[in-house]
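Exercise 7b. Backbone tokens:
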């Protein structure tokens, strides 16, 4: 039996936008998102820029206060300040940009040791130093790196420092916000292999946010496809790539470049632009760009339905 580590129910994150003359309007960055992650699993969140992937990750950790919804960690809701403080010792984040996510005024030792300082997880300076060197060893760095500053490292090394910081509290859940998108392709492979190795060694659970479907296919067990703040399809990796059901998922997979001139290019390219999350369309969020749109699509928002093989899709045509 799969053991759920994290359950997200009806998560919403709206930002009030100033429209002038003392009027505001909500920007619906995340609109009623629900999913479950099992222990030791990697769930991929994919979609084009601005679909709400990063906001989901940050809202789960309550870097943004949720507008609505429930976050349940290991069977217990995260509601009070005490719940949140305990949750943040078990759930951490690796940020997208290794250049801006590390404080340039702090040494690597202080960057990696900061979570230990905040949560008072050592009894002496020696114990703190030993723990920091242990964490650097996990990610392929050594004691010589501890006294240096972030600007002295390459992008790949900086991201290793970010991973070491995320592991400082011995977490069970790590939210990875496009952790390799700012790196060279060869370095991407090294970081991904490092993350998989750490997952096996320390029984980590990942939420892996990315727009790169090739990367997601390499590292994830299940994939959730997002569009305009909504999850439109969730399925195990092989099932999603072999049998995509939602028209948006089909378009995303069809847009992956294939280095073979004998394979014809995708015929049904997406047309038009993504609607504004300030004025989202009524009914299905994708109907303005869907070739198979019908009257029912514009009338009501479809719910995620299990069509078998743990494959969930939100489309009235399925």
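Sequence design result:
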């Amino acid at each position: 039996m799969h053991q759920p580590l994290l359950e997200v129910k009806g998560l919403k994150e709206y930002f009030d936008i100033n429209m002038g003359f003392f009027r505001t309007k909500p920007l619906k960055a995340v609109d009623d998102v629900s999913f479950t992650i099992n222990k030791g699993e990697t769930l991929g969140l994919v979609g084009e820029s601005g679909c709400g992937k990063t906001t989901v990750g940050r809202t789960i950790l309550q870097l943004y206060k949720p507008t609505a919804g429930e976050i349940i960690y290991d069977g217990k809701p995260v509601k009070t300040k005490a719940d949140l403080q305990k949750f943040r010792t078990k759930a951490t984040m690796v940020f997208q940009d290794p250049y801006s996510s590390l404080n340039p005024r702090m040494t690597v030792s202080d960057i990696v040791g900061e979570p230990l300082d905040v949560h008072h997880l050592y009894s002496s300076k020696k114990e703190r130093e030993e723990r920091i060197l242990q964490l650097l060893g996990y990610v392929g760095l050594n004691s010589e790196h501890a006294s240096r500053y972030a600007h002295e490292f390459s992008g790949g090394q900086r991201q290793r420092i970010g991973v070491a910081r995320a592991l400082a509290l011995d977490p069970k859940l790590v939210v990875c916000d496009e952790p390799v998108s700012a790196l060279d392709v060869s370095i991407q492979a090294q970081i991904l292999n490092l993350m998989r190795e750490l997952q096996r060694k320390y029984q980590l659970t990942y939420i892996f946010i990315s727009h790169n479907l090739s990367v997601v296919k390499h590292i994830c067990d299940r994939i959730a496809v997002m569009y305009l703040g909504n999850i439109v399809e969730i399925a195990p990796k092989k099932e999603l790539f072999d049998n995509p059901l939602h028209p948006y998922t089909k378009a995303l997979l069809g847009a992956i470049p294939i280095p073979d001139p004998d394979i014809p290019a995708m015929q049904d390219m997406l047309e038009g632009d993504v609607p504004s999350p300030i004025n989202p369309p009524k009914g299905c969020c994708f109907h303005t760009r869907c070739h198979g749109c019908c009257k029912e699509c514009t009338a009501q928002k479809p719910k995620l339905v299990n069509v078998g093989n743990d494959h969930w899709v939100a489309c009235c045509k399925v």
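Instructor comment: The mean pLDDT is 90. The radius of gyration is 21 Å.
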